[in-house]
Amino acid sequence: MELLSKEPAITKGMKLPVFELLNVHDEKIASTKVLGKYTLVDFWATWCVPCRKETPNLIDAYNKYHSVGFNIITVSLDSKSDRKKWEEVLAKDNMTKFTNLFNGGDESGLARQLKITTIPANYLVDDKGVIVATNLRGDGLRLALEEMYGTTK
User: Distance (Å, rounded) from C-alpha 151 to C-alpha 92?
Assistant: First the structure.
C-alpha cells in the first residue's frame, strides 16, 4: 500500500459495508455494534508514518466528542505477522480508548471491498452506517465534528 490517500471507491451517501473483526482480546466485534451518533472508521498500519502522525488528532477528536456519541474504530492493515507490533503501537500511541480491530493481511477482504489502495483512509459514518464524509484529517476532521456537534471545551 502507498502512504498517501486518494478518494475511495465507496464514498459519501453510500452505506459502509458491515464487517466483523477481532480486537486486541481476540473478541469478534461487529461494526454495527459499536456505531455511535457518528463513527470514524480509520484504516491504518503501524508502518504508515502519515497514519501515526494523525493519531494525536484522532485522540483529540475522541476526547472532545465521545461524550456526545462520537466513536472511532481503527482497522489495522498490518500483516498477520505484525499483530504483536500492532498491540504495542496501540499502547505506545495512546490509542486504547478507540475500538481497535485487526485485519491482518486484509483477511476479511474489507479493504479490497472498499477498494482502499492507499492509507491513511477513513470514513465518517452516521449511526446507520451511511458515509457522511471521507478522508477527514487534522483541521478537516475538527471542522466536520464542530459542524455536526457544535464546539466543545
Answer: 29
Tens of pLDDT, residues 9-28: 677 899 999 999 999 999 99
pTM equals 0.90
- Cell numbers 478507540 label which residue? 98
Kindly state whether residue 90 falls inside one of the protein's structural domains: yes
Which of 104-109's residues contact partners 24+ apart within 8 Å by CB, and which partners? 104/76, 104/78, 104/79, 104/80, 105/79, 105/80, 106/77, 107/80, 108/19, 108/20, 108/21
C-alpha cell at 29: 466485534
Q: Are 97 and 71 in contact (CB under 8 A)?
A: no
The whole domain housing 37 covers 20-149
Q: What CA–CA distance (Å, rounded) separates 10 from 7?
A: 9
The grid coordinates listed for 33 are 455494534
120 found inside a domain: yes
